[in-house]
Amino acid sequence: MEWWLSLTLLLGVLVLLMGTGLPVAFAFLGVNIVGAIVFLGGESGLAQLARNAVSSLTSFSLVPIPLFLLMGEILFHTGLAYRAIEATNRLISRVPGRLSVVSVAGGTLFSTLSGSSVANTAMLGSTMLPEMLRRGYHPSMAMGPIMATGGIAMLIPPSALAVLLGSLAGISISQLLIAGVIPGLMMAAVFLGYILLRCWMNPALAPAHGDDDAGEVHGWERVRPFLVHVLPLMGIFVVVIGAMLLGWATPTEAAAIGCAASTLAAAAYRSLTLAAMRTALMETLKIAVMILFIIAASSTFSQLLSFSGATRGILGLVGDLGLGPFQVLLIMLITLLILGAFMDQISMIMVTLPFFVPLANAVGIDLLWLGVLMLICMEISFMTPPFGLLIFVMKGVAPPEIRLAQIYRAAFPFVLLQLAVMGLIVAEPGLATWLPELARPAR
Hints:
Blueprint: H1 3-19, H2 24-39, H3 43-57, H4 64-77, H5 80-91, H6 98-114, H7 117-127, H8 129-134, H9 139-151, H10 160-169, H11 173-179, H12 181-201, H13 220-229, H14 231-245, H15 251-268, H16 274-298, H17 301-307, H18 310-321, H19 325-340, H20 345-363, H21 367-381, H22 389-397, H23 404-427, H24 430-438
Helix pairs in contact: 1-2, 1-18, 2-3, 2-16, 3-16, 4-10, 4-15, 4-16, 5-6, 5-13, 6-7, 6-9, 6-12, 7-9, 7-22, 9-12, 9-23, 10-11, 10-20, 11-24, 12-23, 14-15, 17-20, 18-20, 19-20, 19-21, 20-21, 21-23, 22-23
């Protein structure tokens, strides 16, 4: 069978199954069954499918995923994250669009602890959005910063998706986690600059009346909550990243340290309850099982592409077209941005990695750089219509009178800002690779 026919068959079955509403894991499982019968020798191929599923889940590199998830769930369900947001709110005063600024600052802080864009957006949306709307903030200036900052959790460690991407693409997980720090902070800085500029140019977007209550608290009473409720949690992030940066711990060990530190912090603040821990464990279990099930179901997909000749055919096509690294990278990013409007992030990884990794190796694209750019594309896809996940999370926490069209308009300028940051990293790869180059290999 010609390679293009094989590719059409595999992708066609995948699109057909996903189009029927079948969960992603089962869609990949269906494709694997068809491919095993056609390309891997029928019964022996099905046996290989089972062996691949088992071996894919026994990889030690996947252990940080549930550990990082648990770290964020503990801080979320014990209420420590809410205290940190409130302390940040009290510290920041007398700036244009103060509550929008607080959303970005507090959301970036929580991103360094949660690793979950959905949890980040849901928490900020439920705590900050009602107050901003009550004070007369324009819906775009209230919802846009919350959604944009929620997506930063995908870049800044601990990012479970970065662990998954690194594991499947053969990229050093510790380096990929560290590489997301500077781009994530760049995103936050650009969002802050945009908010301050827009609210300074048009104060009606974020009325100052009644928005300066933090200014009524002075001196020690303003600083004390930040020192008590924020700095210790920032210490967890510094320890987790520092341990990997200095080579003292592997990603798995760093994730375990983060879990232990989060638990100890919750106990120190007297917020650690049996009910909170039970909820945190159950939420972690739900998300981790979903991710691992998809990994198991998709483990044979790249093997099928190789056996069918599809991978070699695509590499040959790129060679015949004479495309250089920049052109190939541009095609990859555009493909991800288009897929992101219709697929969830894990599906995007599973569909594209079997093609992208061989292509990147063939034309000389740095996989670490590519990994960071893929994470940024997936962050952008969280806010692109029609199926951006954070758009629907915001719709769920917003008041009933907020229409979906308003949420789309709120997301639009921040999507442009994210594209601008991605453009900078495409133009200057060192923004993504400089910090990991300083890291020492773990013992």
